[in-house]
Amino acid sequence: MLAASRAGRGLLALWLVLPAVPLLLWAFADRWTYPALLPQEWGVRGLAEAAASGAGGAFLRSALLGAVVALLATPLGAMAGRALASRQVPRSTVVLAVLLSPLVLPPFAVALGLDVLLLRLGVPAALGVVVLLVVAALPYTTITMRAAYAAHDRGFEDEARLLGATRWQTVRSVQLPLLAPALAGAAFLAFLVGWSDYIVTVLIGGGRLTTLPLLVASAASATGNDAQVAVLSLTSILPPVALLGVVGLLARRGRR
Q1: Is the Cβ–Cβ distance between 62 and 133 less than 8 Å?
Q2: Model confidence over 203-254: pLDDT tens digits?
Q3: Which of 5, 84, 123, 186 counts the most CB atoms within 10 A of its CB?
Q4: pLDDT tens-digit readout, 9-51
Q5: What residue stretch is flagged as signal peptide (predicted)?
Q6: Cα–Cα distance for residue pair 245/256, rounded to 1 Å
Q7: Spatial separation of the C-alpha atoms in residues 168 and 156, rounded to whole Å
Q8: ω into residue 35 within 30 of 0, thus cis?
Q9: Domain for residue 22, yes or no?
Q10: Global pTM?
């Protein structure tokens, strides 16, 4: 059983890593033409081109956007998930349907329609992007935290209160440690929404907010710069993979 589980994890890791192998080869290929199986000339031209295109600034803006979306959408999703799980909200099914509506509506149509409204209201482009992405992330954080609160045993909190702990001490020392894996998972999903978004950023941002996905799309639309596209694509993959590892560690600790 244990061997089969390890083999399954190994196959899953291989499945995830394999698509990155051609990107790694392209990233350090100064010349790679058909029918050669490997690059004929190795180098760092792709790295230089990516840096010259503004990859560093775009990376920081994407990271900041993802972090802001996660910081706002995670506590909002936690509050909504707790209320829905405890059935404190009247017509909770309707409320849940409203919260999930961003997953059903076409993002392009929503962003295009709200772009006109935000322009007329004079909302700054960056603020408009953040607001819309937080709304887009809420379904993921709400569902994650609703499931976590539904499985959460409040008996631990009641016991802490009986032993003299204050409400804040109970939240800090009992509730948050127990819910840490779910909170980390919700924050990861919210970060991904902000980090990987293209449609909302390009429509609402109006070209004034250049993030890494916009840079990747711009480079991929041209020809002859495969090495640069590979470097930018790998750069966009690394932070989510690193965060996924952190979430996995927290989940493992939570099960102990």
Answers
A1: no
A2: 888 777 889 999 998 888 877 788 888 999 888 988 888 888 777 776 666 5
A3: 186
A4: 677 777 777 878 888 888 888 888 878 888 888 888 888 888 9
A5: none
A6: 17
A7: 14
A8: yes
A9: no
A10: 0.85
**Parent domain of 118:** 46-255
Q: At what angle do helices 176-196 and 125-151 cross, to 10 degrees?
A: 150
Question: 90: domain CATH number?
Answer: 1.10.3720.10
242, part of any domain: yes
Q: Which amino acid is at 72?
A: L
User: Residue type for 219, please?
Assistant: A
Dihedral sign from CA coordinates of 13, 19, 22, 23:
negative
How far is the C-alpha of 185 from the C-alpha of 193, rounded, in Å?
13
Would 193 be classed as within a structural domain? yes
**CA-CA distance, 211 to 68, in Å (whole number)?**
14
Total domain count for the chain? 1
Structure token digits, residue 45: 């031209």
Q: For 181-204, b where at least 16 C-beta lie within 10 A, e where not — what string?
A: bbbbbbbbbbbbbbbbbebbbbbb
